[in-house]
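Narrative of accomplishments. A recurring question from our advisory board has been how the design workflow behaves on a single, concrete structure rather than in aggregate. To address it, we present the structure tokens for one chain from the evaluation set, followed by the sequence designed for it. No filtering or post-editing was applied between the two.
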């Protein structure tokens, strides 16, 4: 509810994560010179990740061919990591480009949302509420731990 009813962050939240500002929660689990991978602070499910470029872009067509290829490799590595940590049954992978498409953050980012059987609970059906079965901060720590044990995590 804090996210839904609270004040909107001034500026770009993802750029602030790139800049490592103290006024944002940073759940980044991996980064290099082009991209960052972060746990979503307001996840749809445990393990919900964002992959986003360091450079502030608003459209996937602004990525270079080399960046697109790298993003695909990072996505596959994220899927392997999520399989190892959560073993989901499936994934939703994609973008929301533009406010009318559901983008609440203008900085382009790819969502990876793990999906599980029977993930809708009785509270969802009766009260329209979502129940988080794991804190995003716990997700971040679990993913970082497994990631640290891999020799070439995002090759």
């Amino acid at each position: 509810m804090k996210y839904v009813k609270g004040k909107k962050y001034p500026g770009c939240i993802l750029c602030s994560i790139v800049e490592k500002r103290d006024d944002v929660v940073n759940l980044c689990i991996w980064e290099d010179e082009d991209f960052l991978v972060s746990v979503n602070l307001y996840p749809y499910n445990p393990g919900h990740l964002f992959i986003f470029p360091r450079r502030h872009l608003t459209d996937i067509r602004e990525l270079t061919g080399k960046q697109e290829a790298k993003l695909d490799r990072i996505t596959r590595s994220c899927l392997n990591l999520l399989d190892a940590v959560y073993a989901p049954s499936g994934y939703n992978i994609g973008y929301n480009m533009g406010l009318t498409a559901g983008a609440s953050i203008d900085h382009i980012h790819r969502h990876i949302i793990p999906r599980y059987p029977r993930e809708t609970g009785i509270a969802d059906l009766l009260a329209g509420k979502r129940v988080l079965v794991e804190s995003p901060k716990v997700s971040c720590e679990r993913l970082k731990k497994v990631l640290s044990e891999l020799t070439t995590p995002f090759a």
